[in-house]
Amino acid sequence: MRTERWQQVIERIKTIPEHPVLTSCLVLFGLAIVVFGLSYSYYVEDYYNFVGQVLAEAHGMLFDIAVIGILIYWLNENGQKRMRIRMYLDEIEDFRLWESEEAAFRTAGNIKRLNRHGKCKLDLVNCHLARTNLSHILLKESNLNSANITHSNLIQCNLENARMNQTDFQGSNLNQANLSRSYASGAIFSNTFLIKANFKGSFLIKANFENALLTEANLQGSVLMGANLKNANLLKADLRGVEGLTVEQLLEAKTLQNALLDEHLHQQVAEQSPELLTT
């Protein structure tokens, strides 16, 4: 009978390490007995001096906990943040070139998470982002060359100084988007909403703006050599100082009403097709 009880006690003792809180409490209790036992004589013979030293050590311990605790917390948070960023970037890389709805939405989600972690300069070359919502996203200085971003929402998206050569934005909404100083040679903006979009100082060589809505768009100082403006709505658009822009390109537009043009271009359009400036 006693043997069985001892065996039960031994089995319970063996299970103690499986419970971290209980193990910690037992260790603390055991050490407290040892420390208080060894310090008993000091409590009796030199109580006030001993307590003063204990309090001094306690203050030092609190300072150590505060400093080390904050440092460990900062290092832990920073490490986790870097791991999450690395995971999101790896997922974008995994979905690159995969033309599917799942790939598009997973990539868009990772872009938003990276933005929340303060990362906006991304490598999105050949990424499939069709029919996604990227409104208000920050992609400043990102590389989107040859990406598929058709029929998507990029309202007030920041693409300043981004690379978008051969990128397909067909049918997308880029109203009030910031594309200033971007590189979008050969990009497709056909049937795209670009109301109040900012293309100031951008390279738009051979870009396709067919049927695009460029109302009040800012194209000042951009390069439009060989760009397709067929049936583009350029109502109140700013086209001053545009390089490579010819009257032949402008004559293919749907309207130039109230558009801001260089004097020589305005004069040529007025002579050859004055209705473009009034309707």
What's the quick description here?
Helix content is about 45%, strand content about 0%.
The CATH architecture name of the domain at 121-279 reads 3 Solenoid
Figure out the total of helices. Answer: 7
CATH topology of the domain at 121-279: Pectate Lyase C-like
Are there runs of 5+ residues with pLDDT below 50, and where? Answer: none
**Beta strand count:** 0
SSE blueprint:
Blueprint: H1 2-15, H2 20-38, H3 40-45, H4 47-95, H5 101-116, H6 247-251, H7 263-272
Report on the architecture of this protein:
- The chain has a domain at 121-279: Pectate Lyase C-like, CATH 2.160.20.
- 43% of the residues lie in helices and 0% in strands.
- The protein is built from seven helices and no strands.
- The protein is elongated.
- It starts with a helix and ends in a 7-residue tail after the last helix.
- The mean pLDDT is 88.
List keywords for this structure.
single chain; 279 residues; Pectate Lyase C-like; 7 helices; 43% helix; elongated
